[in-house]
Amino acid sequence: MTSPSQATSWQHETGTLTLDATPTRIVTLNWAATEAVLLLGITPVGVADKDAYSYWVREPELPDDVPNVGTRTAPSLEAIAELKPDLIVTSTEMAPAADLLEKIAPTYVISVYKDGSQPFETARKMLVTLGEILDRTARANDVLQGIDQTLAQQRHRLEEHGLNDRPVALVNFMDDRHVRVYAPNGLFQTALEALGLENAWPHPGSFWGFSTIGLEAIAPYTSSRLIVLEPIWPGLKEQLADSPFWTYLPPVQRGQVYQIEAAWPYGGVFPVKRLAVELTDALIAGGSDNVH
């Protein structure tokens, strides 16, 4: 631990974090926080929902030997205490346990997703503030600059290929008739705007930034291209091929269905970069009339 000359304080959603030394043992209780700490070049000593992070978030990579402390909604206070952290990072979903967490270690509370929030701006703020707390300010600024540069590069690639002309609808399949569509108030909207792409779905969603709809609800947006985010379960391709809800969709008939790898839509800043690259690559490679 490094020791600054005097204690430093940061306001957060449930109070004030005051530290007289730079934390080195950090426990993160949601994936946006885990992502931010990893981006700052620090490996947490414990995380919540470790296994699912490796499937859904993927990048930045979480080392295999990081202990799991339970789920994001119900972490084990005992497991956290055993790790002897000097900082816990969480969100307001854990507000009822805030007092208990504070008894274990100083706790910083920030929520990327809540009513009225702007997810990407809040995630940027979280990264910058954690950079200050962890004495990694330069690293935080470098990460954000790198994301901005990547977004600009991907936009230029799309413009070179003339692929900014049609709106896109971003969806995950729930079953063969229903999808989760990503709305203008969600994290992914930042990637679309940075790429110069219009979101075909104009309606606001939940504070998580999505709505669940039937496939037929996409049909009126006749000029849109359809971006399908994985995972795709076995047999979905065949089910869709036999579905009138699917086969009569304008983007399906035009062969403008594009499948991309999963990007975590409820994370911090990095999923915006990941989505931008995946989406640009897919649009340039060309579409089809079904998932694969």
Structure write-up:
The chain has 292 residues and is of the alpha/beta class. The chain has eleven helices and eleven strands. It has helices at 31-39, 50-56, 77-82, 98-104, 119-133, 137-160, 188-195, 236-241, 244-247, 250-253, 270-285, and strands spanning 8-12, 15-19, 26-28, 46-47, 87-90, 107-109, 168-173, 178-182, 210-214, 225-229, 257-260. It has a five-stranded mixed beta sheet with strand order 9-8-7-10-11. A hairpin with a 2-residue loop joins strand 1 and strand 2 (15-19). Helix 6 (137-160) runs parallel beside helix 11 (270-285) and helix 7 (188-195) crosses helix 11 (270-285). The protein is elongated, with a radius of gyration of 21 Å. Residues 1-5 have low confidence and may be disordered.
Keywords:
292 residues; alpha/beta; five-stranded mixed beta sheet
Secondary structure layout:
Layout: E1 8-12, E2 15-19, E3 26-28, H1 31-39, E4 46-47, H2 50-56, H3 77-82, E5 87-90, H4 98-104, E6 107-109, H5 119-133, H6 137-160, E7 168-173, E8 178-182, H7 188-195, E9 210-214, E10 225-229, H8 236-241, H9 244-247, H10 250-253, E11 257-260, H11 270-285
Parallel strand pairs: 3-4, 3-5, 5-6, 7-10, 10-11
Antiparallel strand pairs: 1-2, 7-8, 8-9
Strand order of the largest sheet: 9-8-7-10-11
Q: What kind of sheet is the major sheet?
A: 5 strands, mixed
Q: Average the pLDDT over all residues and give the rounded result.
A: 92
Q: What percent of residues adopt helix (DSSP H or I)?
A: 25-40%
> Which percent band covers the strand fraction?
15-25%
Shape: elongated
The topology string of helices and strands comes to EEEHEHHEHEHHEEHEEHHHEH
Low-confidence runs of at least 5 consecutive residues: 1-5
- What would you report as the Rg, rounded to the nearest angstrom? 21 Å
The N- to C-terminal Cα distance equals 50 Å
**How many distinct beta strands?**
11
Structural class by secondary-structure content: alpha/beta
H/I helix tally: 11
